[in-house]
Amino acid sequence: NMSFFNRQRNGKGTVAETQYQQQPDHNYQSQKNVNGANSVKEMSTGNVKQQQQLVFHCQQAHGSPTGLISGFSNVKELYQKIADCYDFPVEDILFCTLNTHKVDMLKLLGSQIGLNDFIFAHRKGRPKEIEIIKHEDALGLTITDNGAGYAFIKRIKDGSIIDSVGHIQVGDHIEKLNGENVVGRRHFEVARLLKEIPRGATFTIRLVEPLRNGFGSIGPRGDPRMSKGKKSGYGTGKETLRFKANGNVAIEDEHDEKVQLGIERVNSLLDSFMGVSDVELATQIWEHAQGKSNSMDFAEAIDSSDLEAFGFTDDFIIDLWGAVTDVRAGRVK
């Protein structure tokens, strides 16, 4: 239920318009089964629904035996299964990455998991409080969340206020702002709070960094070069388990390149407009554009859905439609 912003169809609403904007040797042989029965997921193949048992391999990112995880239908349930497997509080999980133990924001687990993906759970590490003077309008953060109540830093803009603070890193969970607990708030709510801090004001941010094991556990700040030309021994399946906004779970084929490019373009616009990264939201927006031949029909589809609550402005809707049509026409590679 996305009731975070009021609709501002007429006018120039500024909805959270911000730019906020290890390699240990893992034991892949020692395996630990999570207690409980494995659930059965449904895969639609035309009018026939095949049932199959889905089991995913998992480790704690700082090092652990391999666990076998199954029986979940959303991210919160997945986190609980991981916590049960390793016998620690579910609140300890900050986020998960796929096929790498590093804090690599290009590999975040979001609304979908490849059927062969290996899950790495990143747990809470050291807390830290930092006092910052907001001497510019934009702090230089992009914020996302783990789908279970924790907002964290996905990107830090080079040369920004946050970049100049050496103790703040990608992957840090934002726990409090000026003493106010923001656990449980979505990423766009946290971005809005940061945007509303007056220029020139001093504020305190409490962060919790991911638990680390030695050195080399943090990936580059959104450097796509690190994901090119490197092949993993796992995560090469062509089918994906996708958690949908309506609570359903489905096994789907991977998006083709054009659809994936479109979703990435929409997500980039979300970053510019709201200071957040949300592949699931971008996917929903892209899907609402399917079958539409003009921006008016697209805007009507947005207004008639749960996305209406975000209060996207007319100009932003036009930008989104432009991204959709550019990808459709092959103007973007």
What does this structure look like?
There is one protein chain. By secondary structure, the chain is an alpha+beta fold. It folds into three domains: 27-124 and 215-253, no CATH class; 125-210, Pdz3 Domain (Roll); 257-328. The chain has helices at residues 75-86, 187-196, 257-274, 279-289, 295-303, 314-328; strands spanning 27-33, 40-45, 48-53, 56-60, 65-69, 93-98, 112-114, 118-133, 141-145, 151-156, 173-177, 180-181, 202-210, 239-243, 249-253. The strands form four sheets. Strands 1, 4, 5, 6, 8, 11, 12 and 13 form an eight-stranded mixed β-sheet that branches. β4 and β5 (65-69) form a beta hairpin. It starts with 26 loop residues before the first strand and ends in a 5-residue tail after the last helix.
Total separate domains: 3
Number of helices: 6
Helix-strand topology string = EEEEEHEEEEEEEHEEEHHHH
- Ranges where pLDDT stays below 50 over 5 or more residues in a row are 1-51, 214-238
Helix content: 10-25%
Average predicted confidence as pLDDT: 74
Q: What percent strand?
A: 25-35%
What is the 3D form? globular
* Rounded radius of gyration (Å): 20 Å
Structural class: alpha+beta
Number of strands: 15
Q: In whole angstroms, how far apart are the ends?
A: 34 Å
Q: What can be said about the biggest beta sheet?
A: 8 strands, mixed
